[in-house]
Amino acid sequence: MSLAERKAVAAAIDELHDGKAEQSSVTDAARAVLEDSQERGGGICMQHIDKIYPGNATKALDDFNLDVKPGEMVVLLGGSGCGKSTALRSLSGLEDIQAGRIMVGGQDVTSVPANKRNMAMVFQAYSLFPHMTAVQNVEFGLEIRGLSFKERHRIAMEKLELVGLVDQATKFTQQMSGGQQQRVALARALAISPRVLLLDEPLSALDAKVRVQLREEIRRIQVETGTTTVFVTHDQEEALSVADRIGVMNHGRIEQIDAPQTLYQRPSTEYVATFIGVTNRLPAASNGDEALVFGRCVPLIEGSARGDEVTALIRPEALTIDTSGRTSAIGEKAQVQSIHFLGSHIRVDAVLKDEVWTRANGGKPLEVTVQCSSTGAPDGLAVGGDVTIVPLPVPALAV
Amino acid sequence: MAVMQDVKPEQPVQLRAIRIRRQRIVKTLVLGAVAIFLATPLLAMLLFTVRQPLSGVWGIEPWKAIFTGDGSSLGADMSALWKGLGVSLALSAVTVVLMLLLLVPTMVMAHIRNKRLERAIEWVSTLPLTIPAIVLVVGLGPMYRWMSINLLSTNPIWLCFAYVILVLPFAFRALAVGLRSIDVNTLSEAARSLGASWPKVFFKVLIPNLWQSMLSASFISVAVVLGEYTVASLLGRTNLQVALFQLGQSNAQISTAMSLLALVFATVLVVALDVIAEHMRRRQEKGQNDVIG
């Protein structure tokens, strides 16, 4: 299946989920994938989960709720200690929970031990069994299930082919690179046809190039197999690139769960807005629907705060730079502090010149980050130069 | 300045060569001194076994007596020695089995579930090192007396319980090294998530990765049991060392020859352990050298 076909199938699955199946032209393939995952009963529902580690006063999971549709890939994203790995381990049964209910495919698995949940997990640390070859590792789960040698060897080789490692089948873990080991771990997890595939930061230990390559492979395999997947990571880029939906976690619960684009463009909380991507915190006046930022009306996202002294959370690409020096009621004068060329775009850090903003910012100069395409950068842009920062009418959150 | 610059690069090379040569000489001297220190008593023992101390006559009768099992020509009763050797070998086997059964699952579970408990086990396991064997016997004596009368017999094989305690510090250390060399938690969690029950995790995943340290713990335990005298003697049981001591009363040459053999056997065990460990290390290094990309 080509990349375009895979993307089409993934989009069609989303449409099937949303009940818009008739509008898609690739629904047959998508329906087959989805039906297969539904047959395996891969939908997840975690309700009101509480988890406290012994000796800790705070809850690692605090009224945690998560719904994952069959065949969907949900990424749990958050900083260290937010509870994302705990949520995954609770789902897998490797951690006991103090309260709540976990359902998989409509079946309550809360008190089912980890080895009987029919889930498979890929860990951050290399978890291949060192005394076994790659193919023996992949066969392990099948051997546990009592499959004959011939049958399990056939399946194991199939899965190794899926991850592109048939030629490494007889190698031991010490003879493989980190990326190869994680691929084998993925094949091993998929070999048992799990109801749910759990990925606990599987790419964190790999170098940047391999990480990008492997995350694309994970997504491809997930779409091909239609396995319901929960992926935990702290890497935003990783989350944004592979997820059907991303759940941003904070203090043991999900702050917002949405499609990557929605999450980026319409964050529902300040934490989500500041955690995903770069955000400018600009003083504004809001009536709940619109905010006045630097003299321009900016539409507001639902749930925004209202008042004369609110903070508008505005993305760098939702600001423009004017270097013409014209005086206008819209925009705010600023001085360029630094310019970073980042290939496809340029990031400009500037400080607002008017003392009003400095006083409003508690005596510290108010910094603004603007992003523009490297081909569309304004003429005369230079470090130390005076510019005007103008907001674009892109929906923002006011807090 | 130019002259100095010309000379400087050569000086460190010469100095390094001199330093290396000096280090080699010091190493050789130290190793030689240690070898002489260790070999002298062994050589003296060997000479003692082949030269009659009173008459000064050279002969290999004591060795013949050991290998033929007939020491009547030298006035020695070899049956007690064979019995003692049999008891010690049986004790070694039983002690190793008991030690592994007791220590391996306990240490694995403590390692996975409770690190604090692991530290407590370490502390308890090292206690026999700090308590002299003679003090241990004071505590063990009444227990063995009671056990001999009420539960078991006076068969020396029951010394295995005391010996498990004696080998704990050495066995614990060997097993702890093995446990720390693998990621026990991740391996067991991976196996559990793939559907393995705890016994399967233990036997199919952990034991195959711990066998080297289990072998090491076993060899050390065998060496300790074969050399144990105090506990057996004070509890009135006959093992190899007690039998050797008794034989020494009638024929010191045979006793010494047998001691030398036991020592050689223990050395062979330790060397075998070292060779196996080295072999494993090389195999692993070879594997790592073959790493792709």
UniProtKB/TrEMBL annotation, chain A:
A molecular function (GO) term:
ATP binding
Which key words tag this protein in UniProt? Answer: ATP-binding, Hydrolase, Nucleotide-binding, Transport
Any Pfam family:
ABC_tran
Root EC class: translocase
Q: Does the keyword Zinc-finger apply?
A: no
Per its UniProt record, what PROSITE patterns does this chain match?
Answer: ABC_TRANSPORTER_1 (PS00211), ABC_TRANSPORTER_2 (PS50893)
What domain of life does the UniProt record list for this protein's source?
Answer: Bacteria
List, alphabetically, the SUPFAM superfamilies matched. Answer: MOP-like (SSF50331), P-loop containing nucleoside triphosphate hydrolases (SSF52540)
Residue stretches making up the ABC transporter domain:
44-276
Q: Which InterPro entries match?
A: AAA+_ATPase, ABC_SmlMolc_Importer, ABC_transporter-like_ATP-bd, ABC_transporter-like_CS, Mo/tungstate-bd_C_term_dom, P-loop_NTPase
By its UniProt entry, which Gene3D superfamilies does this protein fall under?
2.40.50.100, P-loop containing nucleotide triphosphate hydrolases (3.40.50.300)
Q: What is its EC number?
A: 7.6.2.9
Q: What is this protein called?
A: ABC-type quaternary amine transporter
Source species: Bifidobacterium tsurumiense
TrEMBL record, chain B:
Q: Which residues cross the membrane?
A: 25-48, 85-108, 120-144, 156-176, 210-232, 252-276
Q: Mind telling me which GO cellular component terms the entry cites? A: plasma membrane
Q: Where in the cell is it found?
A: Cell inner membrane; Cell membrane
In Gene Ontology terms, what is a biological process of this protein? transmembrane transport
The record ties this protein, via Gene3D superfamilies, to:
MetI-like
Please report the stretch or stretches of sequence annotated as the ABC transmembrane type-1 domain. 85-273
Q: How does it sit in the membrane?
A: Multi-pass membrane protein
Q: Which UniProt keywords apply?
A: Cell inner membrane, Cell membrane, Membrane, Transmembrane, Transmembrane helix, Transport
> Pfam families from the entry?
BPD_transp_1 (PF00528)
What family name appears in the similarity comment? Belongs to the binding-protein-dependent transport system permease family.
Q: What is this protein called?
A: ABC transporter permease
